[in-house]
Amino acid sequence: MKFLPNIKYSYLCLGALFVFGSCEKYIEEDIFSDLTSESFVTQENADQLVVGIYGELRDVYQNYTYQFLGTDIFTIQPAVFSVNSANDYVGLSSGFGGEVWSDNYAVVAKANTAINRYENQIDFNESYLDDKAYGIAQAKALRALAFFNLVQQYGGVVIDLEEPSAIRSDYTRSTEEETYTQIISDLESAIPDLLESPDTGRFSKKAAQHLLADVYLTRGYSSFGSNADFVTAATLAEEAIGSYDIRSQSFAEVFDYNNQINDEILFSVQWGNGGDVDDRNNNKHSLFINAVNNYDGISRANLYGLKLDLDAMPTPFFYSLFNENDSREDVTIHRALFANEEATVTSDFGTDNVAVGDTVIYYPKQALDADELADKLNRYYVYQPDQYLFGVPENVEGVIYQYTSNLNRTNFPIFKKFQDVGFDGNVGGSRDTFVFRVAGTHLIAAEAHLAAGNTASALNHLNIVRERATGVANEYTSITIDDILNERAIELAGEVNRWAVLKRTGKLEERIELFNPHVMDHGVFDQSVHKLRPIPAIELQLSEGFMEQNPGY
Fold first, then answer.
1. Could you tell me the pLDDT band of residue 183, with boundaries at 50, 70 and 90?
2. 94, 325, 369, 528: most buried, per Cβ within 10 A?
């Protein structure tokens, strides 16, 4: 973790420097980079300590591998026989994925520092006591969020609640049950002092209720959980929803770049188009796309971005989930890409001059017949619904666009919902990353009610989400956990940790073996091993034998 010996030494050397500068688009604070915290952290500027915690969340929510790969709705772009340990579990080892551990522990370390300073070092007079309580509440809520991210992946983790102050190697892991107890304690302590409507970018009371609902729901499935956890989760989710009706704005409006501050967003990681360079460096626009710049007519400086090295893509199963009347499809994916520069495409069967704004590639929702396909292949590439994975379709005789001429071997409708502005390739984005939305809270409530045996309430919450998307009231007349998982896939794709959701519901192995092409081809998922991630090797080395590895690694 970032405050184990090697990193902790850095905190000792640099932590005294009060470098908690402005790190949020909407949480703008003074910078005191040349001042020492012992001398200059006062009740007037103590909020800088809290702001620094929020900044660490950017790394947490840009670490995509353990959130999406190896699930039913996301896989990798290379050929189905290609091996990727995070996706097909072949060779998954402790040398992989350490950033998930370190990034979340960076949040914990800064939260611990803020709590300690607020409670023990800063002299708050009576007029600042509300500010003191609010600062501690935010720090505890964010620490709980980080611990929850960790426990879902690794099981029991190190629960260190002290500000980093000495080099240590004797860290040991708590049990999973103890970790959940700590998370719940932090959130229950924080909720009374969090604000109902804080400044944008701050953790609100409803965000904490949403998170606590998710925590209780997840714990309810565990060996130490109970039906009462599901009941509590449902109650908390409904408190977080409150009187807000998600049907008051469309799915398209929620993801309108110019509407990022809206009532459905309970919490988001903030980015911006000004301030420090880190403020405008989101990369989520490039998460689920291929090398679009390889298409004739699309340059590297395009409207879509350049793909990340993660090489993630949706599975064919994901695309199949959108019904004809589902408005979310047009918001979520591009079924056509357009040229931003002129180009000329030539084959043995003719020439096509591509102008700016012309269609470059098209992905029909339903397969085209031979005549319509041939007609369109004289103007742009067309890939049918069964051609999204790696491979070269058979050329169509007599058309200009020959599949063998396309440099991209994996062609699929790329993601649209995270489309950004002002970015540079796969960096430089300024769109906020939504962490909790009320639509997601409804789906937590649906799952919790279903697990608790309250089918009618579960249906109600599921149908509210569905109605916003399709305009059809009470479309679901029965409900299963698979219905909820499918609705979550469409509504929250790329937003929430899909792997963790499948794991908690006991559906991970079943659904990846049904829907993840690479797992279907050669996956080695083992329930006794792969429901937990390996503790990073570097952390085991630094702990000098005090920490134990998860079984099977």
1. very high
2. 94
Q: Which two tokens stand for residue 245?
A: 């009706």
Cα distance between residue 151 and residue 17, in whole Å: 31
Q: Is there a contact between 76 and 82 (Cβ–Cβ < 8 Å)?
A: yes
Beta pairing, strands 381-382 & 359-362: parallel
Core vs surface per residue 531-546: b (16+ CB within 10 A) or e: bbbbbbebbbebbeee
User: CA 52, 501, 207 angle in degrees (round to 5)?
Assistant: 40
Q: Side chain identity at 30, as an amino acid letter?
A: D
Number of H helices, E strands in the chain: 22, 9
Which among 350, 274, 305, 261 is positioned nearest to 24, based on CA atoms? 274
pLDDT of residue 19: 35
Is residue 18 a contact partner of residue 177, using CB atoms and an 8 Å limit?
no
Q: Which of 369, 361, 318 is nearest to 343 (CA)?
A: 361
Q: Residue 537 has which token pair?
A: 């090797």
Token digits of residue 222? 């565990």
Alpha helices in 155-291 (DSSP H): 176-190, 205-220, 227-241, 251-254
Q: With contact defined as beta carbons under 8 Å apart, do 265 and 434 qualify?
A: yes
> How far is residue 275's CA from residue 272's CA, in Å, rounded to a whole number?
8
The pair of three-digit structure tokens given for residue 332, joined into one six-digit string: 């979520």
The per-residue pLDDT for range 322-337, each reduced to its tens digit, is 999 999 999 999 999 9
Taking the C-alpha atoms of residue 236 and residue 267, their distance in angstroms, rounded to an integer, is 16
Q: What is the pLDDT of residues 368-410, one digit of tens each?
A: 999 999 999 999 999 999 999 999 999 999 999 999 999 999 9
Helix-strand-coil split of the chain, %, nearest 5: 45, 10, 45
Q: Which domains does the chain have, with CATH numbers?
A: 5-278+532-542 (1.25.40.390), 288-405 (no CATH)
> What is the pTM (predicted TM-score) of this model?
0.93
